[in-house]
Design a protein that fits this description.
By secondary structure, the protein is mainly alpha-helical. It is built from nine helices and no strands. α2 runs antiparallel to α7.
């Protein structure tokens, strides 16, 4: 017991739900809004138009991310609840078969048959549905779908990511707004990718490289579109 109390482990997988939504939202906010503002700037649009485009992109993107996360994660939650109902019904109708199934699961994991049976019986007595959801279907409390949490994290992260290019468009008074947008967005993307991978337990450099590549491609595409069609926008 003393060894258990002094042995502390910090795992990262419990962060998967909100971390995925937050990283996706921040990356999307920074890349999409930065690229949108850059495209308008390279097209030669008026400063007020550039700013309005950035604000509209921020608002639309935040609500879109929240709705998308909520709908998709709700679908996962619906599937989990359906599986729970199916399993609960099977436990009521076929308890012996379900106990044998749980025993077989532990045997396949290397537990001796007699001990596997004892473990299955004790877990069934303690929480039969929880045992089957966890060990048969892989549904764990720490990984359960949480639609509201995912939606809020995604919308908040998108807004945080979209704010820098919008604020830059609002405050910039020089002639080189496109260059300032590219530099600011890429630096922030690099920092975001590095921190996100570090939080997830990695070294950070691969995460930084991934977002830089995709962010640079997106900004190059919108800058080119703005340059090609700038005459119509202006």
């Amino acid at each position: 017991m003393d060894a258990l109390q002094t042995h502390i482990e910090t795992h990262r997988s419990q962060r998967a739900g909100w971390l995925r939504a937050a990283v996706l939202g921040a990356n999307d906010g920074l890349i999409s809004t930065g690229s949108l503002v850059l495209g308008m700037a390279t097209a030669g649009a008026a400063p007020a138009t550039i700013l309005l485009s950035g604000i509209a992109g921020l608002a639309a993107g935040a609500f879109s991310m929240a709705a998308g996360e909520y709908v998709s994660v709700s679908s996962q939650a619906d599937a989990e609840r359906a599986d729970a109902r199916i399993e609960a019904d099977a436990l009521r109708k076929y308890p012996d078969a379900e106990l044998a199934e749980l025993t077989e699961i532990y045997m396949r994991r290397g537990v001796e048959p007699t001990l596997a049976r004892q473990v299955a019986e004790q877990l069934t007595d303690h929480d039969d549905l929880g045992a089957h959801l966890r060990d048969e279907l892989g549904i764990h409390d720490v990984h359960r779908a949480r639609p509201v949490q995912a939606a809020v994290a995604s919308a908040a992260a998108f807004t945080a990511g979209a704010l820098p290019p919008v604020l830059l468009a609002w405050q910039w008074r020089g002639q080189n707004l496109p260059m300032a947008l590219v530099a600011t967005t890429l630096v922030l993307l690099a920092a975001l990718g590095f921190v996100a991978e570090r939080v997830a337990g990695g070294r950070g450099w691969r995460g930084m490289g991934r977002v830089l590549v995709w962010g640079a491609m997106a900004m190059a595409a919108t800058a080119l579109i703005g340059r090609l069609f700038g005459a119509q926008v202006a």
